[in-house]
Each structure stands twice: as structure tokens, then as C-alpha cells.
């Protein structure tokens, strides 16, 4: 931290303040995303965080680093958002483009959004603290983010502070305005929940050349609307999800029924444009308008791969298309 920058910022120099907080901007955005599961909510809360930091700069005594101070503000703003937000949009089967088969279950995280890898590339190359169980980039998978969203707010914050950022129990307690015992208990419960959700470990690694063959076969099966070929690439316990629609399908039989049911609508998709989200392979899907011949972006698909098989397929709406560099239309 530059003492000169801090003094200039305290004196009202906005450029100095920007220089002071800019090195932490991207990692704070990712932290807010982990807390909230939504890129758009993360942006809103981060802006609120920076405003609060600017207005409260006179009260910063320098007993911690600027980075830790900003994490404290950001985490508390996220907690306030979680406690005040109504995050369960009403969605029914009528929202499906075609009648859907009975789902395996209704998902509990309809607000989930994907995080563009191009933004992850801007993360500073920092080593997590000594208490971290996850590498910072590893704790961005859709499985991890989804599981974290199911934790109560304090458990969520404790897990991210301790196991992702690597703060010690005493430091995390100070950041969250809790006792060490409260943080330890919250962390214990959070870990148990993630263990039950089977996201505590990393997926079985897949050789890059093997994975590329799998992805090529996925693109072919998807583009040719080959239900059998698509399902053949999946693990027996595969999940198919489509937030903000709550329907979730588990297992190849349920997934086969789903893709068979939506086949009349699905067959309109005739092009996939590769991108990456949450450290995972992803594609923007385009459907051709029969009248104009123009292809329109209809969804963003993100794959989870484990041991050379597709273990998750998540379809998102097109809201975040600009973040992925995906045009709305293609000739």
C-alpha cells in the first residue's frame, strides 16, 4: 500500500482512490459472485462496496491491508444483500418452449449465472492464505458455486473466508464481526453440506486430447440433434439444469426423455460458438430464423466433464451474452 496514495485519497483525490482499489477490483468481483451466484448482483454489490469504501476512507486506520479492508466491506454488503433479497422467481412449466417431462427435482438456485473465463484471466496471481482448502480458480466451478448458494449467509461467508481466501479463524471472525467459535461452527456445517453435495474434491482429471475428442463429439451430436449420441457421452448420474427454469434432470434415462420431449424446439439450433465459463467448456447456441435466414442466440451451454464423460450440462439464458463476446445474431 502506498502511504502517499492513501493520504491523497483521504484528501478527496478520486484518482488516488482508484489507484488504491483497482488492483483488488477483479478478485472482489469474483468474491461477490461466489457469495451471490449472479454476475449482475456481484457488479451491483461491488459498486456499493467501492462507494462505501470511498465514503468510509477516513475511518480506515491501516490496522489491516487495504485488500482485507475491502473484503470486509464487500462481504458485509453481500450478506446484507442476501438477507434482504427475494431470490426465488416464480417459474412454471408454462415457461418451457415445449411440454417438459416430469423433472427429477426442482432446482433451488434459479438466479445462478455463469462467470466468463475472460474475466478470470484478469485475476491477480495471488497465493491463497495458509488455511485455504481450494485454489482460488478451482473454487469457481458451477458445482461449487451452486452448492455454496444453498448455504445460509454466515456459513457461506465463513467457508469462502476460510477455505477459499485462506484467512485464519481469528482473522475471519474479525472480518465477519463474529466470535471465533461462531466462525468455526459455521465452517464445520458448511463443509459438511459441501461434502454431502460431493464438491469437496476435484473431478477426475481428463487428458486434454481425450477431453477434446469428447467436446468434438458433443458439438456433433448437439448440432445434429442426435439424442442417443448426446446421451451416450454422459455419465450415468449426469445432471441437466436450465436456470432460471427450475427443472433439473438426473441420469441418462431422465435426460433422454427430456431431450426427446424438446426435440422439435431443439432442432432449430444449428450452430454452436465456443466460449468458456467458470473454467469449463461452454458454447453459445444459435437458431436460424426460417424467414430471414439470420441466426439468433438462444442459450449458453456449459459442460461439466469428469473422467472423460459429461457429468453436467447447464443451459443459461442469453442475458450475459456481451460478457462472453457473443453477438445476438449471426448471418
From TrEMBL:
Domain RNA polymerase sigma-70 region: start-end pairs: 20-87
InterPro entries, sorted: NTF2-like_dom_sf (IPR032710), RNA_pol_sigma-70-like (IPR039425), RNA_pol_sigma-70_dom (IPR014284), RNA_pol_sigma-G_actinobac (IPR014305), RNA_pol_sigma70_ECF_CS (IPR000838), RNA_pol_sigma70_r2 (IPR007627), RNA_pol_sigma70_r4_t2 (IPR013249), RNA_pol_sigma_r2 (IPR013325)
Signal peptide location: none
Keyword annotations of the record: DNA-binding, Sigma factor, Transcription, Transcription regulation
Assembly behavior: Interacts transiently with the RNA polymerase catalytic core formed by RpoA, RpoB, RpoC and RpoZ (2 alpha, 1 beta, 1 beta' and 1 omega subunit) to form the RNA polymerase holoenzyme that can initiate transcription.
Family: Belongs to the sigma-70 factor family. ECF subfamily.
UniProt protein name: RNA polymerase sigma factor
Organism: Flexivirga alba
Lineage: Bacteria, Bacillati, Actinomycetota, Actinomycetes, Micrococcales
